[in-house]
């Protein structure tokens, strides 16, 4: 195929300028039609670009899933409001701080605080939590992933010390978005949140699920176009995995192949982006996280949540690493990453342009 005769730079430029139809064709080609040796070349190209900006380093972020209460009703999600079988929990501020302390002792310098959209966490409560974490662990970055809020709320949280914000856009195609979410949610608002977060000064992460219901090569092309416009610092993509108490129970769980292809395409399109190899990818394929890293990803997010609650933060079925203590999990993942030829890195792991104190040009 013509892409493989291009230099890495040309391929990157091409992905940044191609129209929707061409992008859709490229995605189809690599997801459905490519011979194995070209897939290896695709991954090799992504790897070279990752290596150029980040070397063999894989950044570790400590994930703290601090509440499974949610007022939203995303149709695919196991902790959505109308799943009455979900066990709801909420960690106290002391419990969250003790997860951070545990993580800090293990070497983590980034904490990712994720939850459902839990109304208990008002701006006051969240700001005081963020400020306390930053006070106790001044050399750490705090990432929030708590869903859609008003932009003045995002600003208050930023002023309280939050450094980064993860909010996957889920899909950049309106009709697709509306098939995955109830009418009171909108893609427009989701996108607006992302643009506000970026403007406020956060390092921002967008992203989507691979092989979510109703996804097509065209909707994926829209995702690439949205991402290259937004230019987020981080992009979280993982496979969709059905949850038994959702309307999508019983759909097939995808294999890892297409997620791995999209990781490479995204690395090539936005060479400097921070790209996690997700737990969901490790869940559907025992070698999934290693495959993701070898295809251009450079971040992992092991779980620091208390073991007693882990299985209750159930976004999808059969999630891995719900039974082990943080230290155990970390030890296992570190070994695996080293064996795969990468270097675990526990620094804050900012986007490369920010590490050098450079301009906020990313992608
Ligand atoms: N409330 C926060 C966090 C959501 S959970 C927010 O709105 O951003 C984090 C991510 O898990 C979601 O953005 C979604 O992409 C992913 N997720 C939810 N259900 C999933 C499923 N069934 N399979 C795979 N990923 C899922």
Structural class per helix/strand content? alpha/beta
Number of helices: 15
Beta-strand percent range? 5-15%
Number of domains: 1
Largest beta-sheet characterization: 6 strands, parallel
Strand order of the largest sheet: 2-3-4-5-6-7
The hetero compounds bound to this protein are: S-adenosyl-L-homocysteine
CATH architecture call: Alpha-Beta Barrel
Percent of residues in helices: 40-55%
Question: What is the name of the CATH superfamily?
Answer: Aldolase class I
CATH topology description: TIM Barrel
Question: What is the assembly state of the chains in this entry?
Answer: single chain
| Cα gyration radius (Å) | 19 Å
Which residue ranges are poorly predicted, with pLDDT under 50 across at least 5 consecutive positions? 358-363
The overall pLDDT, averaged over residues, is 96
Q: What is the string of SSEs from the N terminus onward?
A: HHHEEHEHEHEHHEHEHHHEHHEH
Give the overall shape, derived from the CA principal axes. Answer: globular
Q: Could you give the distance between the termini?
A: 25 Å
Q: Based on DSSP secondary structure assignment, what is the total number of beta strands?
A: 9
* CATH class annotation: Alpha Beta
List the helices and strands and how they pair.
Blueprint lengths: L7 H10 L2 H14 L2 H19 L2 E4 L1 E6 L25 H14 L3 E6 L7 H14 L4 E5 L5 H9 L4 E3 L7 H7 L6 H14 L2 E8 L6 H14 L3 E6 L17 H13 L9 H6 L3 H7 L4 E2 L6 H4 L15 H14 L3 E3 L6 H4 L8
Parallel strand pairs: 1-8, 1-9, 2-3, 3-4, 4-5, 5-6, 6-7
Helix pairs in contact: 2-9, 2-10, 3-10, 5-6, 6-8
Bound molecules: S-adenosyl-L-homocysteine.
């Amino acid at each position: 195929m013509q892409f493989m005769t291009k230099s890495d730079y040309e391929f990157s430029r091409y992905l940044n300028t191609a129209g929707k139809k061409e992008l859709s064709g490229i995605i189809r080609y690599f997801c459905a039609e490519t011979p194995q040796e070209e897939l290896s070349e695709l991954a090799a190209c992504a790897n070279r670009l990752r290596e150029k900006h980040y070397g063999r380093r894989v950044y570790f972020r400590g994930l703290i899933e601090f509440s499974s209460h949610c007022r939203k009703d995303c149709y695919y999600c196991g902790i959505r409001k109308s799943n009455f079988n979900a066990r709801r929990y909420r960690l106290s501020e002391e419990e969250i701080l003790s997860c951070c302390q545990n993580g800090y002792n293990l070497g983590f310098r980034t904490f990712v605080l994720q939850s459902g959209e839990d109304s208990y966490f008002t701006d006051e409560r969240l700001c005081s939590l963020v400020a306390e974490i930053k006070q106790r662990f001044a050399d750490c970055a705090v990432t929030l992933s708590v869903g859609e809020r008003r932009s003045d709320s995002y600003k208050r949280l930023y002023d309280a010390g939050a450094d980064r914000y993860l909010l996957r856009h889920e899909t950049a195609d309106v009709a697709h978005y509306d098939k995955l979410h109830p009418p009171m949610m909108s893609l427009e608002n989701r996108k607006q949140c992302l643009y506000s977060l970026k403007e406020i000064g956060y390092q921002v992460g967008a992203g989507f699920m691979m092989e979510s219901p109703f996804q097509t090569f065209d909707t994926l092309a829209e995702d690439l176009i949205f991402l290259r416009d937004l230019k987020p610092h981080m992009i979280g993509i993982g496979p969709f995995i059905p949850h038994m108490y959702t309307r999508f129970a019983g759909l097939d769980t995808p294999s890892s192949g297409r997620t791995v292809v999209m990781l490479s395409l995204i690395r090539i399109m936005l060479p400097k982006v921070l790209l996690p190899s997700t737990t969901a990818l490790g869940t559907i394929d025992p070698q999934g996280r290693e495959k993701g890293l070898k295809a251009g990803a450079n971040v992992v997010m092991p779980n620091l949540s208390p073991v007693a609650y882990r299985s209750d933060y159930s976004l999808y079925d059969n999630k891995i690493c719900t039974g082990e203590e943080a230290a155990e999990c970390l030890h296992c993942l570190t070994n695996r990453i080293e064996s795969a030829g990468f270097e675990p890195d526990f620094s804050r792991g900012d986007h490369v342009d920010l590490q050098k104190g450079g301009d906020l040009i990313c992608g």
